[in-house]
Specification:
about 250 residues; alpha/beta; five-stranded parallel sheet; elongated
Length: about 250
């Protein structure tokens, strides 16, 4: 006997949410604990409800489905993507989605997805945990060919900050965490510096030190600090160390 699956349905279109909930009700063995109209609601609902399964649309305003999973991180439950677009399927399975349902899907296809979830766990009662998700590569920036990030998402409890990369002053690395400096504020994000750097436009951001990544538009001047070391002085007066290699990269860029 399978346990009742507690699920959350996320879709920005109300008719699509209602239809899926009706279909789940017909199949049975499922309790819809929350319906969400956008990604922000989804992150909050998952955090508060700890569901067994997430039915997640891909294309939504403000936050897409992949960004929802990025923000949830290890808290993300198993996910079934529900979308009218097939081009995201590969990325979905790369982040260990349980299934990928193309709209419009049938009751039989939905039932197949639920059976897959129930039978994929060791005890055939609890869906497998989504242990790790990978950040989706941004295709929303002006430089779509390179795929550079145009925004960075930061989760602070139930609050979500969407930071445009053009607003970044600099990034500071602290072990497996980065601090994003924006207008005198710092936002903490669990991310490795090298991984974040790889997503940013190298024409705008340069690694000036092993612990600092600088938005060159914020640079006011360079000062010699000691032999082979310098300080970057930002327009707001912030002083950041510049290594020999960082200085070489700066000179090449400027």
């Amino acid at each position: 006997m399978f346990k009742t699956l507690r699920v959350i349905v996320v879709d920005d279109e109300a008719p699509a949410r209602e239809l899926l909930c009706d279909m789940l009700g017909e199949i049975g063995g499922v309790e819809v604990v929350a319906q969400c109209a956008n990604g922000f609601e989804a992150v909050k609902a998952v955090t508060e409800s700890t569901p067994d399964l997430l039915f997640l649309d891909v294309q939504m305003p403000k936050l897409d489905g992949f960004e929802v999973l990025e923000l949830l991180g290890a808290e993300a439950p198993p996910v079934v993507f529900t979308t009218a677009y097939d081009q995201y399927a590969l990325k979905a399975f790369e982040i260990h989605a349980v299934d990928y349902l193309l709209k419009p899907f049938t009751d039989d296809r939905l039932g197949e997805a639920l059976r897959r979830i129930r039978h994929s766990s060791p005890d055939a009662g609890t869906p497998p945990t989504l242990a790790e998700t990978r950040r989706a590569e941004s295709a929303k920036s002006g430089d779509a060919e390179k795929g550079h990030l145009d925004r960075i998402l930061v989760r602070d409890g139930a609050q979500i900050h969407v930071i445009g990369t053009s607003r970044l002053d600099y990034v500071e690395a602290q072990d497996d965490v980065v601090l994003l400096a924006v207008g005198g504020e710092k936002y903490r994000k669990s991310e490795r510096m090298a991984r974040l750097e790889a997503g940013l436009d190298p024409r705008q951001f340069v690694r000036i030190h092993r612990s600092y990544l600088l938005n060159v538009e914020r640079l006011a001047k360079l000062e010699l600090y000691a032999k082979d070391s310098r300080l970057a002085i930002l327009h707001d007066g912030t002083r950041l160390p510049v290594s020999r290699a960082g200085y070489a990269r700066l000179r090449e860029l400027l």
